[in-house]
Amino acid sequence: MTAKLPKDLSEQVFEITDSGAVEDLLAEIAKAVSGVTWKPVGGIENNVHTIEVSTDPALALTERPINGIDAVLDLAARERGATAPTPHVAAQQWYGVSPAGLSAMSDEARRSLAEMLQVTMLESGDAKRPTIVIQDRGTGQLPDDFPKTLLSLLESNKKELPHVMGVYNAGGAASYRFAEYTIIVSRLAPSLLNGHSDEIGFSIVKYNPLDPDRFKSGTYEYLAAKDGSILRLDLAELPDLPWGTYVKLIEYELSRYSRAAHEPKQSLWHLFHAALPDPALPMRIVERRDDRFTSVRGVERRTVSGLLYLLSRKGTADYSDVREIDLGPALGRVTLRYFVLNEGRDPDAYTTAKQGLTITLNGQRQITRDRSWVKRVLDLPFLYKRMVIVVDGTGLTNAAKRSVFASTRESGVDSPEAQEIIDRVVDELDQDENLSELDEQAKHRVLEDAQKTTTKKVKKQLAEQIGAFLRGEFTGGKGGRKRKKRRRRRPHRPGPGPVIDDSAMLETPNTLKILNDPVRIEPGATSSLRLEINAKNGFLPKHSDALSVVLGPELAEHVSVASKGRLLGGKVRVTLQASPEAPITSSTMSVALVVPDLGVLLTADGTIEVVREEDTDEEDSRTGGEPNIDVNWVGKDKWTEFAPEWDEQTVGVCNIRREDPSDPTAITKVEWVMNTDFASYSHVIEEKHLGEDALARFRESYEYPVLLGLFRQRLAEEGKEREADDEGRTIEIPDDYVRGEQARMARAVLMAMEPNIQVAEAVEAEPVGADV
User: Fold this and answer.
1) Would you give the distance in Å from CA 412 to the centre of its chain?
2) Nearest to 653 by CA among 636, 668, 670
3) CA distance to 304, 384, 638, per residue, from 449 (Å)
4) Contact 237, 187 (CB under 8 A)
């Protein structure tokens, strides 16, 4: 005879929102069913290390809606006796999701799908530890199956189900660590009963610290009837969604995302969009803490469709591209999508500074690189903060996935395969000249009214100190090195930028032209073939398979298409890759666009040349000359242009350029932007009442040591970042720490220059703010 809670206690399960209410319920349950017992989760006494795999409560929480999506997909699979190669294909076949993704669907269609999965924020009494409910209308589970499903650990529940999202993670059990209690309720979908009783199972998970004098750690346990069986609820169906699984995380640690669920930052909206760039199905987030947040009126509901949906909305990005990169038979392929947010958008409302690049599997975040990494490897110091890069790794081979993805979404595997994928992504981005143009435009806007006051004397002093590191358009003071041509040159003045308007383009194109003939490529390298096709932007990649490149017999076996881009404003970039054994020769090249259904048959002919690495520049002179140095001063009207945003505690910034792909360690240019309204500097200027000439002399004396200090600090930061990259780990150098060290250095210079002025007291009153 299975134990069943009376109706009043069954209903109470769905009403409690804090740990005190859970403890009261447990006392009532023990009396109502003549005693209960606690069993180890997963049947493993020593389960703490398996459950506590995650250090990030936000990412652990994300596992719960992923489980919900999987349950909804698996319900359709079991009802049909079918499977699908990926979760996204399953969503297309069984739930009518557009092949172009959730972004291509109407709001009404997405809201309708989102009704099958909802995440609700409830008041617990602690603002940083809300109670969170995750409920799906998926398969659900029979009560007797709980120990092998909902309360299991290390079970192979999804290994043979390609149509579900979860594979490479510890699953929803990771969330137990961050909740005071976890309530789990489930009802098997009626369509799957097959003669079984229609019952609702119930349990509670808690952490038992055990006796610290006897045990090194505690254990996670679940509530069961006295005979060890799963308790039942006296209800016909679940609230809100009649069947499926209901998980309530009591007082969940969610400090960083505990704002009202629908707010753009520090909220469930922010978390789920960033952690699920491209979910197979949407979900609904519900906010019920209306007494806590004045912005909440009653019950607020929002539909979460993923980061790619947000980025694809009209007016969000100034520029974007999508490219499928062929990595060869051993690795498979990845899809690269990248976006440059327009200046009216707050980048932190889409991802945090820790997520400049994201590699996903089945639409969920797996590996990230921060914005500083993007800035460093792409050399885009004025654009990087507005860039969002998403790499879909679903198309990798199974062997490659094992070599790349780890069992936690907090890091990836440090492997040659992972590095090759990242290198290819960086190469694709590096070849996009539009990014360089946009970076130059951003720089021009920041420095449009900047003051260029640095004298030749200061530049010469800097050259003597940093010439050993430098080589650029000018010769260095010492340590000159041979320069090689950079594949991508930055203009001195920005051009008009990429053209994305397709209003003058045709639905069915009638023109195909090669824009860079001949195409030159080096053995073992990549190069861009640029085409003009007078079609609407959506024509590619929709008809990407219809675009082909055929080479003559001299190079047909040595040069292949690595990726094709998105058609923007009538232009598209195709990446060609040459094998290391490619001969130094030329060959014919034919490009064809063939779409029989549209009557499209367009061709263009050109030439491709495999060339040796060019050494066109002579050895730099090792004596005299001025290195490529640029210094600008800006005021508080430009503070918002920087990331993190400047304030009166900011000294300035140093950008080190490395624009030679043949020697990535070589510095080709150093740029400083200095803050005229740095509080200590402004204070000294005001105290001294300097005239124009005296101000120029004072600034010259201040510039040299401070510019050199910023340069050396940036070099040290880069060294730590590269060391971390080489070791396959991430490193965080907090912005407030860097800013504070710079301010202390600059104040020391000012105090040495003006010992009679109390420099430090002018700025100590207001601490530097931390990046959140």
Assistant:
1) 13
2) 670
3) 41, 22, 9
4) yes
Parallel, antiparallel or unpaired: strands 200-208 and 181-187: antiparallel
Say if residue 518 is preceded by a cis peptide, omega within 30 of 0: yes
For residues 10-36, one letter each, b for 16 or more C-beta atoms within 10 angstroms of the residue's C-beta and e for the rest, the string is bebbbebbbbebbeebeeebeebbeeb
Q: What is the DSSP letter of 506?
A: B
Does the pLDDT of residue 312 top 70, yes or no?
A: yes
pLDDT tens track for 241-256 = 999 999 999 999 999 9
CB atoms under 10 Å from CB of 339, counted, come to: 24
pTM of the predicted model as reported, rounded to 2 decimal places: 0.85
The CA dihedral of 390, 391, 393, 396, to the nearest 10 degrees, is 170
Which tokens is 376 given? Answer: 């460093």
**pLDDT the model gives residue 468:** 61
Contact (CB, 8 A) for 270 and 278: no
- The set of residues, in sequence order, having a beta carbon less than 8 Å from that of 235 and lying 6+ positions away, is 7, 10, 11, 200
Beta bridge partners of 319: 340
pLDDT bin (cut points 50, 70, 90) of residue 372 is confident
Give per-residue pLDDT as tens, 517-553: 999 999 999 999 999 999 999 899 999 999 999 999 9
577: burial class by Cβ within 10 Å (0-12, 13-18, 19+)? buried
Mean pLDDT, residues 600-610: 97
The strand pairing partners of 389, in sequence order, are 338, 357
- Considering only CA atoms, give the Rg of the chain: 30
Neighbouring CB atoms inside 10 A of 365's CB total: 22
- Selection from 158, 110, 106 nearest residue 281 by Cα: 110
Confidence of residue 561 (pLDDT cuts 50, 70, 90): very high
For residue 231, the one-letter residue type is L
The residue written with tokens 């979908």 in the block is 189
Q: How does residue 731 score in pLDDT terms, banded at 50, 70 and 90? A: confident
- Count other C-beta atoms under 10 Å from residue 490's C-beta: 18
Please give the Cα distance from 453 to 655 (Å, whole number): 18
